[in-house]
């Protein structure tokens, strides 16, 4: 009996082992392609096993690969935003291709609207979105640059090519004259202040731009100039996916500033002296000996001809690397990433280096509680933030030699104390400037579903910023050689601690055809900044640089400040929809700002928006041409704090004076106190039409808006006899009005061959000052004129150069032939202040941008371009480097002489440090068209990628800024007309050849 039982147990064990072996072996790999109705691959489709936590996503070619246990009974679930979910029983199959159909009820995508998300079809405000693909199309240093030319109504202008500089961003123009015009940036739901360069673009999933009052009123005063909502990458359902992206770019100067060579400069100096009768062409040798010093004459005999730009500028580079791991289950999703970026400028002393870390986690606790966190950390090093070595290089004479016979740098190559050798700055230790920044930005949340449809969410966003700045200039630094003095140094540091706490209550309910969503908010935001700077002169040992300021001979300045501000806010929003046809959004926000005086702290900002989904009306239900047709309108008010903390309290200024024969220090009011300051308020009206045709082949939007800003915060000029020259008041009124058109199209759609997709936008914004208070029509000192744009160029207008035949008429104006001829506006034969006029504005007549994407099998070509047409620019090159008196090198211009009676530029004159009214030479047509980037990429075939045990492998080569078409560049020999109001002398514009690699495992 015992033997039979033993045999029975053995048989049962064998059967169990066999079943276990079969169960383990009963696992197979299922793969396939997921396409849309046009047979185009869908990227990022979630493929999961029904009832289990395992899953994956489709790659760049719409392909997925998934290990499935029990393939006989398993079911795959395919989900993608904007498409109907599909369930496919495996039934032992190893290849399951799927075609997803567009769900018109979901309409494409989810849009971030602030304190939540909405389906695109339910949006009532003016919102533009830029996705991951568009952000990755161009190599950028910071997120703002990715918006350039991508969204209608959003204007991004680069200040310079200096590594680490941030561009200027304007959403629907400039509203305020003195207060801020920058938009609010919100990262993962938390307002983000300061330098956006701290965020690596590789971690950004999408950027949504809120433009009208209905969209921005939920952020109250902080959203007065528009809002940019930045959503970072989050973990997704599926096994861990390792992603890497890397690039290296070769950076070159876009083009040299056209300065005179040796022969041109020599002749220009001679002409400058001919003008004053100091040069005799009949005796050139003796005349040259008078106007050139011995060093210059010796170099002329040697044939010296130095291009100082080539000596100062060398190729730079830009490298960017990011690696991340992301994945998750149905209850836990995570992402971890590291990034490194460096931009070495074409000027050796300028560079920007950044290290990034990003962490994100979302965790379900039970079925009703969700918590999560995201962390963005950055540490950056910026060299040469204020360095401008190209300035001295452009002025240096081409007949000056940089080195002596032994190869040593000559301190004063021409003997002129105002022209030190610009290469001295490159001597190690002569000039050291370093900014170190550390930032830790965190977004924490906890969300609980109290009952079905009712949720409470707590957002907490601590933000820590710290910087340490040092500048050392040795006695042989060019700045000190010009100004004189001992070595000097500056040391500064600042810490900023900010936090945001938000309590958000949301309720969503659907009853038959009625949809109701309500949002309530109570929040507080506070920021404290502690800043200190010390300046010294007379560093005894220059190797100490700025690290031992106590050893300096004298302290030239010590400053410190503490600044704190707080905003307390309440907000309520109601969204109502009926039958997916009629939509209504009501918003009211109240902000209390510590910046204003008691009784003026609170501002109230209401808005209303309506929308009509015409496409869901009965006449459109059975047609197949239109996919989307929605009419929107909104009206509301938003405010702007626009002043520094403590501005309403008045400031004291220290002043030295003599008391009892001894020096004493006292204090006097520095700014006149005005406790009546209140909010700038912008009232906005917006009308928009969203449309779509041919099953998504063509989609677009048309917008018209009108914004009126009242109670402008601006200085009111006072008579000096009062002891103050101005006081800050709420005085003026301005208006912004414009239209926008955005269009996306799939022009050619051939999944097996050639495809062509296009995004394009065009927009126009016109600002106008309606009043500036006190019944005045103009504030000439600030350049404000009623009826004109918020920024204009007000100056004399050059009409040509006085010619010899007009000598008698020129004499009436006190000038001679060869000098600049100005327009006599009032015809009184005198050029004075009354003849100044409005010449133009940097505000363009219209702007546009486009992205073209072409694909053929594994190849992809993208072209990004944008244009600004009808603006005016002012170029400092034509005032600082067009002196025409022979001391410094000059722009290689066509100047006037008796034998060359041109009307372009005046005759050189050795008695004038600059031509009279030289500033009138600085204004040019600022229109331009730029190809921002061209990228050619190749995706390796799926079979090869799988053989390498990878999900994706992509190689790319791109050219950044390969083409600029502009009158300033082609006609007037400028380099780049893109700048904010004034083309300054700074790091030269560049282009870049970049190679990239993207891989997923």
TrEMBL record:
Keyword Transport: yes
UniProt signal peptide: 1-23
Keyword flag Transport: yes
A GO CC term attached to the entry: cell outer membrane
Matching Pfam families: CarbopepD_reg_2 (PF13715), Plug (PF07715)
Topology in membrane: Multi-pass membrane protein
Domain of life where this protein originates: Bacteria
Domain called TonB-dependent receptor plug: residue spans: 119-227
Principal localisation: membrane
PROSITE patterns in the record: TONB_DEPENDENT_REC_3
Location within or outside the cell: Cell outer membrane
Keywords per UniProt: Cell outer membrane, Membrane, Signal, Transmembrane, Transmembrane beta strand, Transport
NCBIfam families: OMP_RagA_SusC, SusC_RagA_signa
Family, as annotated: Belongs to the TonB-dependent receptor family.
Protein's name according to its UniProt entry: TonB-linked SusC/RagA family outer membrane protein
Lineage, opening ranks: Bacteria, Pseudomonadati, Bacteroidota, Chitinophagia, Chitinophagales
